[in-house]
Protein backbone atom coordinates (compact mmCIF):
# COMPACT_ATOMS: atom_id res chain seq x y z
CA UNK A 1 0.00 0.00 0.00
CA UNK A 2 1.28 3.46 -0.92
CA UNK A 3 1.72 5.86 1.97
CA UNK A 4 1.22 9.46 0.88
CA UNK A 5 1.58 12.30 3.34
CA UNK A 6 -0.33 15.35 2.17
CA UNK A 7 2.00 18.32 2.52
CA UNK A 8 1.53 21.97 1.62
CA UNK A 9 2.06 22.67 -2.05
CA UNK A 10 2.24 25.77 -4.17
CA UNK A 11 -0.87 26.79 -6.04
CA UNK A 12 0.03 25.28 -9.39
CA UNK A 13 2.85 23.42 -11.09
CA UNK A 14 3.70 25.70 -14.04
CA UNK A 15 6.30 28.45 -13.67
CA UNK A 16 4.69 31.86 -13.35
CA UNK A 17 5.40 35.49 -12.55
CA UNK A 18 3.22 38.04 -10.77
CA UNK A 19 3.05 41.16 -12.94
CA UNK A 20 0.28 43.07 -11.15
CA UNK A 21 -1.36 43.05 -7.73
CA UNK A 22 -4.35 44.85 -6.29
CA UNK A 23 -5.84 44.24 -2.85
CA UNK A 24 -6.00 40.41 -2.61
CA UNK A 25 -5.80 39.87 -6.38
CA UNK A 26 -2.79 38.87 -8.48
CA UNK A 27 -2.32 38.82 -12.24
CA UNK A 28 -0.14 35.83 -13.07
CA UNK A 29 1.89 35.48 -16.25
CA UNK A 30 2.84 32.06 -17.64
CA UNK A 31 5.46 32.45 -20.36
CA UNK A 32 5.48 29.92 -23.16
CA UNK A 33 8.87 28.29 -23.85
CA UNK A 34 8.38 28.84 -27.60
CA UNK A 35 5.89 31.50 -28.64
CA UNK A 36 3.76 30.38 -31.59
CA UNK A 37 0.76 32.73 -31.41
CA UNK A 38 0.35 36.50 -31.33
CA UNK A 39 -2.88 36.39 -29.31
CA UNK A 40 -2.32 35.68 -25.58
CA UNK A 41 -4.92 33.98 -23.39
CA UNK A 42 -6.41 35.70 -20.35
CA UNK A 43 -8.12 33.31 -17.90
CA UNK A 44 -10.91 34.20 -15.48
CA UNK A 45 -11.88 31.55 -12.96
CA UNK A 46 -14.82 31.41 -10.58
CA UNK A 47 -15.14 33.69 -7.55
CA UNK A 48 -15.85 30.77 -5.22
CA UNK A 49 -13.17 28.26 -6.25
CA UNK A 50 -9.39 28.43 -6.29
CA UNK A 51 -7.98 28.60 -9.82
CA UNK A 52 -5.15 26.13 -9.20
CA UNK A 53 -7.49 23.42 -10.54
CA UNK A 54 -6.35 24.66 -13.97
CA UNK A 55 -2.73 23.88 -13.05
CA UNK A 56 -3.29 21.02 -10.67
CA UNK A 57 -0.69 18.43 -11.68
CA UNK A 58 1.87 17.85 -14.46
CA UNK A 59 0.13 16.24 -17.41
CA UNK A 60 -3.27 17.30 -16.10
CA UNK A 61 -2.81 21.06 -16.26
CA UNK A 62 -4.75 23.27 -18.67
CA UNK A 63 -2.23 26.08 -18.23
CA UNK A 64 0.72 23.76 -18.84
CA UNK A 65 -0.92 22.45 -22.01
CA UNK A 66 -1.58 25.99 -23.28
CA UNK A 67 1.97 27.25 -22.74
CA UNK A 68 3.40 24.07 -24.27
CA UNK A 69 1.28 24.78 -27.34
CA UNK A 70 2.92 28.18 -27.71
CA UNK A 71 0.46 30.52 -25.96
CA UNK A 72 1.45 33.16 -23.47
CA UNK A 73 -1.10 32.86 -20.66
CA UNK A 74 -2.33 35.37 -18.09
CA UNK A 75 -4.68 34.55 -15.22
CA UNK A 76 -6.42 36.83 -12.75
CA UNK A 77 -6.43 35.28 -9.27
CA UNK A 78 -8.94 37.19 -7.14
CA UNK A 79 -7.54 35.80 -3.88
CA UNK A 80 -9.61 35.33 -0.74
CA UNK A 81 -11.65 38.36 0.34
CA UNK A 82 -11.65 39.46 3.97
CA UNK A 83 -14.35 41.16 6.02
CA UNK A 84 -12.97 44.53 4.91
CA UNK A 85 -13.96 43.57 1.31
CA UNK A 86 -17.60 42.84 2.21
CA UNK A 87 -19.02 45.61 -0.02
CA UNK A 88 -17.27 44.45 -3.20
CA UNK A 89 -19.80 43.78 -5.95
CA UNK A 90 -19.80 41.97 -9.28
CA UNK A 91 -19.32 45.40 -10.88
CA UNK A 92 -16.15 45.91 -8.83
CA UNK A 93 -14.72 42.53 -9.85
CA UNK A 94 -15.38 43.24 -13.53
CA UNK A 95 -14.11 46.80 -13.85
CA UNK A 96 -11.50 47.09 -11.06
CA UNK A 97 -9.92 43.67 -11.49
CA UNK A 98 -10.82 41.94 -14.76
CA UNK A 99 -10.76 45.00 -17.01
CA UNK A 100 -7.69 46.40 -15.27
CA UNK A 101 -6.01 42.99 -15.52
CA UNK A 102 -6.73 42.65 -19.24
CA UNK A 103 -5.27 46.09 -19.85
CA UNK A 104 -2.20 45.05 -17.89
CA UNK A 105 -1.85 41.83 -19.89
CA UNK A 106 -2.19 43.64 -23.23
CA UNK A 107 0.44 46.19 -22.20
CA UNK A 108 2.78 43.49 -20.87
CA UNK A 109 2.47 41.33 -24.00
CA UNK A 110 2.33 44.20 -26.54
CA UNK A 111 -0.48 42.20 -28.15
CA UNK A 112 -3.03 43.79 -30.45
CA UNK A 113 -5.79 41.38 -29.37
CA UNK A 114 -6.49 38.91 -26.58
CA UNK A 115 -8.44 35.70 -25.98
CA UNK A 116 -10.65 35.73 -22.88
CA UNK A 117 -11.26 32.31 -21.35
CA UNK A 118 -13.79 32.00 -18.51
CA UNK A 119 -14.85 29.11 -16.30
CA UNK A 120 -18.22 28.70 -14.52
CA UNK A 121 -19.10 31.93 -12.67
CA UNK A 122 -15.80 33.31 -13.95
CA UNK A 123 -17.20 32.76 -17.43
CA UNK A 124 -20.29 34.77 -16.50
CA UNK A 125 -18.01 37.60 -15.40
CA UNK A 126 -16.00 37.16 -18.61
CA UNK A 127 -19.12 37.47 -20.76
CA UNK A 128 -20.33 40.49 -18.80
CA UNK A 129 -16.93 42.11 -19.17
CA UNK A 130 -16.87 41.34 -22.91
CA UNK A 131 -20.26 43.05 -23.25
CA UNK A 132 -18.81 46.38 -22.07
CA UNK A 133 -15.13 46.00 -23.00
CA UNK A 134 -13.23 48.68 -24.87
CA UNK A 135 -10.21 46.37 -25.06
CA UNK A 136 -9.61 44.33 -28.27
CA UNK A 137 -11.09 40.88 -27.58
CA UNK A 138 -10.52 38.53 -30.52
CA UNK A 139 -11.85 35.32 -28.95
CA UNK A 140 -14.18 34.51 -26.06
CA UNK A 141 -14.18 30.96 -24.67
CA UNK A 142 -16.76 30.05 -22.02
CA UNK A 143 -16.65 26.75 -20.12
CA UNK A 144 -19.77 25.60 -18.20
CA UNK A 145 -20.85 29.23 -17.91
CA UNK A 146 -24.33 30.14 -16.63
CA UNK A 147 -25.95 33.11 -18.39
CA UNK A 148 -29.67 32.24 -18.26
CA UNK A 149 -31.03 31.74 -14.74
CA UNK A 150 -34.69 31.39 -15.68
CA UNK A 151 -34.86 27.69 -14.80
CA UNK A 152 -33.90 27.39 -11.11
CA UNK A 153 -33.23 23.66 -11.29
CA UNK A 154 -32.76 21.99 -7.91
CA UNK A 155 -33.53 25.07 -5.80
CA UNK A 156 -36.88 25.79 -7.45
CA UNK A 157 -38.86 26.36 -4.23
CA UNK A 158 -36.13 28.55 -2.74
CA UNK A 159 -35.85 30.60 -5.95
CA UNK A 160 -39.63 30.92 -6.18
CA UNK A 161 -39.73 32.31 -2.64
CA UNK A 162 -36.98 34.80 -3.53
CA UNK A 163 -38.71 35.92 -6.72
CA UNK A 164 -42.06 36.32 -5.00
CA UNK A 165 -40.31 38.17 -2.16
CA UNK A 166 -41.55 35.68 0.41
CA UNK A 167 -38.02 35.31 1.74
CA UNK A 168 -35.53 38.02 2.68
CA UNK A 169 -31.96 36.76 2.41
CA UNK A 170 -30.21 40.13 2.25
CA UNK A 171 -30.48 40.81 5.97
CA UNK A 172 -28.68 37.56 6.79
CA UNK A 173 -26.04 38.25 4.14
CA UNK A 174 -25.51 41.79 5.44
CA UNK A 175 -25.01 40.48 8.97
CA UNK A 176 -22.43 37.98 7.78
CA UNK A 177 -20.55 40.48 5.62
CA UNK A 178 -18.63 37.59 4.08
CA UNK A 179 -20.27 34.28 3.14
CA UNK A 180 -17.86 31.76 4.74
CA UNK A 181 -16.23 29.14 2.55
CA UNK A 182 -17.98 26.42 4.58
CA UNK A 183 -21.35 27.90 3.57
CA UNK A 184 -20.27 28.04 -0.07
CA UNK A 185 -19.14 24.39 0.03
CA UNK A 186 -22.41 23.31 1.65
CA UNK A 187 -24.44 25.03 -1.06
CA UNK A 188 -22.43 23.39 -3.85
CA UNK A 189 -22.62 20.02 -2.14
CA UNK A 190 -26.42 20.21 -1.93
CA UNK A 191 -26.57 20.33 -5.72
CA UNK A 192 -23.71 18.05 -6.73
CA UNK A 193 -23.08 15.44 -4.04
CA UNK A 194 -25.32 15.55 -0.96
CA UNK A 195 -23.90 12.15 0.06
CA UNK A 196 -20.16 12.43 -0.41
CA UNK A 197 -18.40 9.10 -0.22
CA UNK A 198 -17.70 7.98 -3.82
CA UNK A 199 -14.33 9.83 -4.04
CA UNK A 200 -13.15 8.05 -0.89
CA UNK A 201 -14.10 4.67 -2.34
CA UNK A 202 -12.13 5.59 -5.44
CA UNK A 203 -9.12 6.47 -3.29
CA UNK A 204 -9.41 3.16 -1.47
CA UNK A 205 -9.57 1.18 -4.70
CA UNK A 206 -6.50 2.98 -6.10
CA UNK A 207 -4.49 3.21 -2.87
CA UNK A 208 -1.48 1.42 -4.40
CA UNK A 209 -1.21 3.86 -7.31
CA UNK A 210 1.06 6.64 -6.04
CA UNK A 211 0.35 8.98 -8.97
CA UNK A 212 -3.40 8.55 -8.51
CA UNK A 213 -3.19 9.13 -4.75
CA UNK A 214 -1.17 12.31 -5.24
CA UNK A 215 -3.61 13.66 -7.81
CA UNK A 216 -6.55 12.67 -5.57
CA UNK A 217 -5.13 14.64 -2.64
CA UNK A 218 -4.60 17.74 -4.77
CA UNK A 219 -8.08 17.53 -6.26
CA UNK A 220 -9.62 16.89 -2.85
CA UNK A 221 -7.79 19.92 -1.48
CA UNK A 222 -9.28 22.02 -4.28
CA UNK A 223 -12.76 20.55 -3.76
CA UNK A 224 -12.71 21.52 -0.09
CA UNK A 225 -10.94 24.83 -0.64
CA UNK A 226 -13.84 27.08 -1.56
CA UNK A 227 -13.37 30.84 -1.38
CA UNK A 228 -15.58 33.13 0.75
CA UNK A 229 -18.00 35.35 -1.14
CA UNK A 230 -18.49 39.02 -0.34
CA UNK A 231 -21.95 40.13 0.72
CA UNK A 232 -21.90 42.74 -2.06
CA UNK A 233 -21.35 40.09 -4.73
CA UNK A 234 -23.81 37.66 -3.11
CA UNK A 235 -26.60 40.23 -3.02
CA UNK A 236 -25.97 41.22 -6.63
CA UNK A 237 -26.05 37.57 -7.72
CA UNK A 238 -29.41 37.12 -6.00
CA UNK A 239 -30.86 40.37 -7.31
CA UNK A 240 -29.52 40.41 -10.86
CA UNK A 241 -29.15 36.69 -11.64
CA UNK A 242 -31.45 34.57 -9.47
CA UNK A 243 -34.37 36.99 -9.16
CA UNK A 244 -34.03 39.31 -12.14
CA UNK A 245 -32.24 37.13 -14.73
CA UNK A 246 -31.05 40.45 -16.10
CA UNK A 247 -27.99 39.49 -18.11
CA UNK A 248 -29.64 37.25 -20.71
CA UNK A 249 -32.45 39.82 -20.99
CA UNK A 250 -29.98 42.68 -21.60
CA UNK A 251 -31.01 44.56 -18.46
CA UNK A 252 -27.71 44.38 -16.60
CA UNK A 253 -25.62 47.47 -15.93
CA UNK A 254 -21.98 47.43 -14.87
CA UNK A 255 -21.00 50.66 -13.18
CA UNK A 256 -23.53 52.49 -15.32
CA UNK A 257 -22.63 50.76 -18.61
CA UNK A 258 -25.34 48.71 -20.32
CA UNK A 259 -24.17 45.10 -20.51
CA UNK A 260 -25.78 43.96 -23.74
CA UNK A 261 -24.88 40.57 -25.13
CA UNK A 262 -25.35 42.00 -28.61
CA UNK A 263 -22.20 44.07 -27.95
CA UNK A 264 -20.13 40.86 -28.06
CA UNK A 265 -18.59 40.39 -31.51
CA UNK A 266 -15.60 38.21 -30.62
CA UNK A 267 -15.24 34.69 -32.01
CA UNK A 268 -17.20 32.62 -29.49
CA UNK A 269 -16.74 29.06 -28.22
CA UNK A 270 -19.25 27.86 -25.60
CA UNK A 271 -18.67 24.51 -23.87
CA UNK A 272 -21.12 22.58 -21.70
CA UNK A 273 -21.20 19.06 -20.27
CA UNK A 274 -24.09 16.60 -20.39
CA UNK A 275 -23.87 15.50 -16.77
CA UNK A 276 -23.39 18.91 -15.13
CA UNK A 277 -25.80 19.19 -12.19
CA UNK A 278 -24.42 22.56 -11.14
CA UNK A 279 -24.71 24.38 -14.49
CA UNK A 280 -27.10 22.50 -16.82
CA UNK A 281 -27.06 23.06 -20.56
CA UNK A 282 -30.18 25.25 -20.59
CA UNK A 283 -28.29 27.76 -18.41
CA UNK A 284 -25.39 27.87 -20.85
CA UNK A 285 -26.40 27.89 -24.51
CA UNK A 286 -29.01 30.70 -24.71
CA UNK A 287 -26.04 33.07 -25.15
CA UNK A 288 -25.58 31.70 -28.67
CA UNK A 289 -28.72 33.47 -29.90
CA UNK A 290 -27.96 36.79 -28.23
CA UNK A 291 -24.41 37.72 -29.23
CA UNK A 292 -23.46 39.53 -32.43
CA UNK A 293 -20.55 37.16 -33.09
CA UNK A 294 -20.44 35.81 -36.65
CA UNK A 295 -18.06 32.99 -35.72
CA UNK A 296 -19.68 31.05 -32.85
CA UNK A 297 -19.40 27.40 -31.86
CA UNK A 298 -21.24 25.30 -29.28
CA UNK A 299 -19.59 22.14 -27.98
CA UNK A 300 -21.09 19.55 -25.62
CA UNK A 301 -18.90 17.14 -23.67
CA UNK A 302 -19.73 14.08 -21.63
CA UNK A 303 -19.10 14.18 -17.90
CA UNK A 304 -19.83 16.56 -15.06
CA UNK A 305 -18.91 20.08 -14.06
CA UNK A 306 -15.14 19.44 -14.17
CA UNK A 307 -15.34 17.39 -17.37
CA UNK A 308 -13.44 19.99 -19.39
CA UNK A 309 -10.05 19.12 -17.89
CA UNK A 310 -6.85 18.26 -19.78
CA UNK A 311 -5.69 14.67 -20.03
CA UNK A 312 -2.25 13.27 -20.88
CA UNK A 313 -0.79 16.76 -21.07
CA UNK A 314 -2.73 17.71 -24.20
CA UNK A 315 -5.52 20.12 -24.95
CA UNK A 316 -8.74 18.47 -26.12
CA UNK A 317 -8.78 18.37 -29.92
CA UNK A 318 -11.86 20.59 -30.24
CA UNK A 319 -10.17 23.35 -28.18
CA UNK A 320 -6.73 22.90 -29.74
CA UNK A 321 -7.98 23.30 -33.31
CA UNK A 322 -10.41 26.12 -32.45
CA UNK A 323 -7.72 28.22 -30.77
CA UNK A 324 -5.11 27.48 -33.43
CA UNK A 325 -7.33 28.77 -36.23
CA UNK A 326 -8.21 31.99 -34.40
CA UNK A 327 -5.05 33.02 -32.58
CA UNK A 328 -2.88 34.52 -35.35
CA UNK A 329 -0.15 31.85 -35.59
CA UNK A 330 3.41 33.07 -36.03
CA UNK A 331 5.29 32.04 -39.15
CA UNK A 332 8.11 30.08 -37.58
Give a verbal description of the structure.
With 332 residues, the protein is of the alpha/beta class. It has a single domain (17-326), classed as 3-Layer(aba) Sandwich (Rossmann fold), CATH 3.40.50. It contains 11 helices and 12 strands. The strands form 3 sheets. The protein has an 8-stranded mixed sheet with strand order 1-2-4-3-5-6-11-12, with helices on both faces. Strand 9 and strand 10 (257-258) form a beta hairpin. Helix 2 (90-109) crosses helix 3 (121-130) and helix 5 packs antiparallel against helix 9 (231-243). The radius of gyration is 20 Å and the shape is globular. The N and C termini lie far apart (49 Å).
Write the layout of secondary structure elements.
Blueprint: E1 17-22, E2 25-30, E3 41-44, H1 62-68, E4 73-77, H2 90-109, E5 114-119, H3 121-130, E6 137-143, H4 156-163, H5 170-176, E7 178-179, H6 181-192, H7 198-205, H8 210-223, E8 229-230, H9 231-243, E9 253-254, E10 257-258, E11 267-273, H10 281-284, E12 296-301, H11 317-326
Parallel strand pairs: 3-4, 3-5, 5-6, 6-11, 11-12
Antiparallel strand pairs: 1-2, 2-4, 7-8, 9-10
Helix pairs in contact: 2-3, 5-9
Entry summary:
It is built from 11 helices and 12 strands.
